[in-house]
Amino acid sequence: MSHNSFGHLFRVTTWGESHGIAIGCVVDGTPPGTRFSEAGIQAYLDKRRPGQSRYTTQRQEPDQVRVLSGVMPGEAEGELVATGTPIALEIQNTDQRSKDYSDIARRYRPGHADITYDMKYGVRDYRGGGRSSARETATRVAAGAVARQIVPGLTVRAALVQIGTIAIDRSRWDWDEVDRNPFFCPDAETAERWAEHLDAVRKSGSSVGAIVEVVAEGVPGGLGAPIYAKLDGDIAANLMSINAVKGVEIGDGFAAATLSGEENADEIRIGPDGAPQFLTNHAGGILGGISTGQPVVARFAVKPTSSILTPTRSVDADGNEVDVMTKGRHDPCVGIRAVPIGEAMVACAVADHYLRHRGQTGRG
Amino acid sequence: MSHNSFGHLFRVTTWGESHGIAIGCVVDGTPPGTRFSEAGIQAYLDKRRPGQSRYTTQRQEPDQVRVLSGVMPGEAEGELVATGTPIALEIQNTDQRSKDYSDIARRYRPGHADITYDMKYGVRDYRGGGRSSARETATRVAAGAVARQIVPGLTVRAALVQIGTIAIDRSRWDWDEVDRNPFFCPDAETAERWAEHLDAVRKSGSSVGAIVEVVAEGVPGGLGAPIYAKLDGDIAANLMSINAVKGVEIGDGFAAATLSGEENADEIRIGPDGAPQFLTNHAGGILGGISTGQPVVARFAVKPTSSILTPTRSVDADGNEVDVMTKGRHDPCVGIRAVPIGEAMVACAVADHYLRHRGQTGRG
Amino acid sequence: MSHNSFGHLFRVTTWGESHGIAIGCVVDGTPPGTRFSEAGIQAYLDKRRPGQSRYTTQRQEPDQVRVLSGVMPGEAEGELVATGTPIALEIQNTDQRSKDYSDIARRYRPGHADITYDMKYGVRDYRGGGRSSARETATRVAAGAVARQIVPGLTVRAALVQIGTIAIDRSRWDWDEVDRNPFFCPDAETAERWAEHLDAVRKSGSSVGAIVEVVAEGVPGGLGAPIYAKLDGDIAANLMSINAVKGVEIGDGFAAATLSGEENADEIRIGPDGAPQFLTNHAGGILGGISTGQPVVARFAVKPTSSILTPTRSVDADGNEVDVMTKGRHDPCVGIRAVPIGEAMVACAVADHYLRHRGQTGRG
Amino acid sequence: MSHNSFGHLFRVTTWGESHGIAIGCVVDGTPPGTRFSEAGIQAYLDKRRPGQSRYTTQRQEPDQVRVLSGVMPGEAEGELVATGTPIALEIQNTDQRSKDYSDIARRYRPGHADITYDMKYGVRDYRGGGRSSARETATRVAAGAVARQIVPGLTVRAALVQIGTIAIDRSRWDWDEVDRNPFFCPDAETAERWAEHLDAVRKSGSSVGAIVEVVAEGVPGGLGAPIYAKLDGDIAANLMSINAVKGVEIGDGFAAATLSGEENADEIRIGPDGAPQFLTNHAGGILGGISTGQPVVARFAVKPTSSILTPTRSVDADGNEVDVMTKGRHDPCVGIRAVPIGEAMVACAVADHYLRHRGQTGRG
Lengths: 364, 364, 364, 364
What we know:
- Chains A, B, C, D: It is an enzyme of class 4 (lyase).
- Chains A, B, C, D: Homotetramer.
- Chains A, B, C, D: Its EC number is 4.2.3.5.
- The structure is a homotetramer.
- Chain A is an alpha+beta fold.
- Helix content of chain A is about 25%, strand content about 25%.
- Chain A is built from nine helices and 19 strands.
- The longest helix of chain A is centred in the C-terminal third of the chain and has 24 residues, at about 340-360.
- Chain A is globular, with a radius of gyration of 21 Å.
- Chains in contact: A-B, A-C, A-D, B-C, B-D, C-D.
């Protein structure tokens, strides 16, 4: 048991706060011989990095990852070969502005975990969100980059599919578009509408929620287990661990509640290659907790950033009623930066189940 | 690691298939001195038991639980006192009709895990759903009944809030109503509409999905952890482990994605007792993974029963295309029976975090 | 985390007390397709069963195991095929004499866990040793019988090598002899000396300690891990979990402390088959936590049975000084019955590491 | 599951190799409010540090620990207060001589894990022992320093009690003496004999084994569990995880095998304070897996250093027979430096069980 780890055979333990010396994680269980590079990890970190558009926090962090252990140099330039021992990944904290946090040291910001930290721990690192800072998620993105190298043929991608009440038009879904706009939006037209909307939100000092969709292709059939080690159960737990996430669904998700058995059935035929082939994917690639070989599809809902300019009513640790208004560098829509994090968490879940399946059955 | 356990300090391991000799679970970590009774467990099992109305499967199972270990007799009649050693709970399988399963032994029923079991295991207990049978959930309900005794003042209740596209009117919510209709519906008027709708569904041999809401009151503030041992993360994983569940949300859940930061903020004031008091509960009783002391609110979506009378296209294990039509005793809406199971899974998560919190902090 | 489980990918959870309705275990992680039978398990249980000679307790327990879940019938008579789901094994308690335990309900027997149970739990099942009863070990022997089927070519055998101060002569070691005497002694001459000695011990109402040696042949090289998941670490923990065990050693064990580096070195040459071949096995088949392919050799020390006829000074739960004398059916040397238990615990550790190795590396 | 973690509620994950950038560990589960300091940790690290006498390796490592996360500054100079989030401890590797390792890159040194690493991983960091380097143990000593602060009144001390065949005279045991000689020897006369003996061993390029005894005082009664979470089981596993350890015993250990029940009984009387008081401590402070409140006593055997000057016969990765002779900086008796490591591992086990006990029972 750990309060700061996830996964079993592929197990990640993260540490660090927003304003400490560094953050990092220990990746345990990477199969020996797995090849990756610092540059490869860095590419994913750069996607998540804040300050890249006016729609995310202006905090500037180079987020330069270092691999401290668990590897030998490979033949190619910069290539690393996992030795099977724990891989420590570390990112220095460089942009810790020595600002004055005394105004929030004892005030409970609504929507933040300030009050619950005090309930639980009685002591709290109030600087920049402490352990709850979105900064911690950089370590998962790094771990996810290693996870992606473990399952042959695996591709995990994510996109933002809704901001506030504005959803994308799925008929226009284009994965290439995702890298062309600052929202990871697969639909160029909707991206334009979001830009307008978020400009207004940002100017008013408000914030807005969002929905992210993750699609994992190349997940072999047979990963998972029927009940308490379901692939979808672990994906749900992994996604729910991302800050501000309030809901998770697989395949048709909540919409499945409105369907009839006929509508929801993913019928099967024999495909051109002689293998079974599903005609639809309402199930999101998972039946009875086990992958079908189809794309695994998961979505998660991110609540609006709690830090807003409008004063909200609250209390402080001394029992006084106060008004709280959050100044400083914040994202109007934290859902945007959650996109690469969602990818990473699904990649880690798939890698873990891939190794577990291989252990239990000798296949894969 | 286990594929068939959940929880950490309060840990449940379940076993058994639909058509074996028995099903059961081992409940590990119940604090010594916890008092309960077989009759108390039985009351919860009776709520879940099938065959109580025409809206659930007609399979008749007395589901009589026996406590095989981990207890000493208490002073009161039937009272048991936990000794701190593992509590084994067992339920005999009595209604195993010796029917002929040869027609489905090699056919993959769409929406069922038949095909993924074969992908994973290569061998499968096809009788009555095997390990995926809803029957397994009886053991969780039994474990949940023990869990409820661990946290002083805890009340966990659930209700069905939507069947197909027909949602309840929340202004009419009445917990007492839940026990008066066969749907665990808190709104009498909607229950009548559901009765009509489900009669039609049942007659046509179809099925329909549903949404269940679980509310845990009396959860002390401070349970959970910021990231990978979030109370909401464990509730999500626990609920996702229930058969046919495709989505989970906490508090406002997916609706939070559509809100602004102002709308989503749960403001705080000092209450009449001098303690902080939240004015709303969009967060569903959990902030940053840690309970706030407010009611914990979770919802989950159940897909329509995959067993339907309409033939669906599929294949068999020999690579032939076949049509599958499921005869036999099935629920038109498995969401109904998921209500007491959802309660149990939330109760187990809360009990586990209560003990973990006590261990880590010495409080509670 | 569990207080009553061991192993990871091959994970066993046991439950039950000496005087409850039954005892049992849940074996999780058996690879699908593994073949075994109730009769095969029973053969190992019969070895452990008490009452087979005058040197073990006269308590009569048929110890008939039943497989309640996790299997389908195989082709051969009585053959079972694991489906990959949890295998529940259960043994009824039949010889629960309704004797009067009131004399020990509040007295702390020296050498027993009575006093520490009360320190920990505050409530205690005093009947027949409760959870600490040697009876629980039957479930491990059953689990071990399944574990043996998982690693191809694995043979795990054990023998008693010392009773009190009388050690065997290792030059006379004969595995066939182990089944011919009531002590699992590999040296016929020593067995005779033990018979005389134990007769005297038994008549005087005393007891004596013993040392057991377990040898696992056919353990493939490469199982284990360098530090915290060492094969020897897990074997040590598994053996230490057996009642009354006070010490564990691998290979030369404590004697290695007296050797020089030259004496302790297991030199290596190329064998006739072209593969590396160790010339000696001081290491006991494990180097740096990982198996070498040589026989894995472990020994454990069992303290003398604490239940003796001589009165010993103690106290009761009410703070009175009392004299305690244990009447009833007890083993003069519990080390004897520990032999098949030691085998089982090593078999479980090897099976677990076999699956973990396969998961992590894809080999094996 | 992790291959590089130990403990449950107090959980330590270590990472790093001898010749990487750094080594470190993540300490998860330290109760919030626990106070410690870098200087306090450093004091324990300095005890373990090599190069302090001619009897340990001359490798010079300042072993300066840094606390990277999980703390807030306390009131006193240098004092740190745990926030309950993961504490990352890191030690830079500074003395990585750029020596030529090509001679051992493919040779299997007898007694080392070179050959088993290749069996398991197929790839290996051969520089300085890689993951198996004694260097990793510095991180445990650091973690142990934190663990000591968790259990009020706990004192964990260790001493070397045997080198080769020369054991101490226990009647001369003096804890103060332990810090006065380079062997952590509690008996000044024996320390002198060891000095002479080790000088000879060192000059001949040989090595010798040793036995370490750890004594934990102030362990409250009631920690542990009856079977698979025994306090002694976890101590055994923790000690067995130390490099080169081949045996572990609790209390009288292997000697208990030679005792009668009467000799082994720890009788109990009512002490002057009205509480039960044990008259002896054959059990080593643990009965039935649970602490008695007496000192917990554990011993472990360390094999002779495998690196010796005398050439030994071996093979290389290419299947050639070779002679291996280890040059370089090595300890003639690794048992010496194992003393502070043994202390740390016992402290970690006690802290973990202290928190687990508190979680399960609400006491402590």
